[in-house]
Model the fold of this input.
Amino acid sequence: MRVIEHIEKRDCFISFEITPPLRGGKVTALLSLIEDLISLNPPFIDITSHAAQVVYEETPSGIKRKIKRKRPGTLGVCALIQHKFGVDAVPHVLCKGFTREETEDFLIELNYLGIENVLAVRGDDNGYDKPLDGSRTVNRYAVDLVKQIINMNQGIYLEKELLNAYPTSFCIGVAGYPEKHFEAPNMEFDLMRTKEKVDAGADYIVTQMFFDNSKFLAYLDRCKEIGIDVPILPGIKVVTRKAHLTYLPRFFHVSLPAELADAISLAKNDKEVEEIGVEWAAKQVQELFNKGVKGVHFYVMQNADVVKRVIKKVGI
Ligand code: FAD
Done:
């Protein structure tokens, strides 16, 4: 089923986002994580995508620049979720690191697998741009990717004269930023870029994680004011480590309210941080539901336990 139909049909839901294992990793741990999550009856599960990136390695002959794709496997994990567990999988599709031709092939694979949902995101600059020969093209922004998917939904593939081109029917999610995307010069600019994704055909928005509900609620209002009328799912992350205090702002460009930041910094160890994180997330989720939000999207990554504790506390 399409994500948008799940959102329409359910009164209250929790969805999840997980990452494929590191290259060389076993899928067994991920399988038990998925089983754990499925016991919570999610309408769908997102699986992140990861482009190749530049890494520098020290070798006896000096520092070597290497191109590595650390987490392959998005397609395989999606196929497992969809067909072994019977839950709708939402693979993330990226601009960065993939040509439009590769993206079309990926979408064809998804279509054959009966996966009808995707989250279209640009991806971050990771220091590596794939060299292109003249016959290959790239999507620069997520809006370009949305347009490519919408074209396929209309039977328009990259090769224009394709005979019997079959229209796909992907439901498309895109990213939104209650605290502004870090590259955008200001919030208004960023909101208009998000509106362009919706105007191009995106069906719904999932937000970056946030720890202050007032920022999300203000974001909802601003989106409404400028005519963004698709569902917006709030992204929730449970803080579990002291290192999150600096890691989350550095990598995700989000802020932590003073009360939460102070509590984490005073905590004796990660166990205490986890307690604080569970309590905080439960308060956030409870308040969002009280304000009429229908569903929340948890950034689970590899640990379902804390999310389960939050859900139990909220009593969903
Ligand atoms: P865009 O919508 O393209 O926006 C990127 C920036 O460009 C913004 O500042 C925007 O204001 C600006 N912009 C957009 N269009 C234009 C234009 N025409 N002219 C000028 N500026 C413009 N990353 C991964 O690598 N893998 C994942 O699986 C993944 N999943 C994610 C899931 C969610 C829910 C979220 C919120 C993020 C995810 N990301 C993922 C991170 C994402 O790739 C980064 O945040 C990235 O920097 C921006 O992606 P975007 O789709 O929002 O880009």
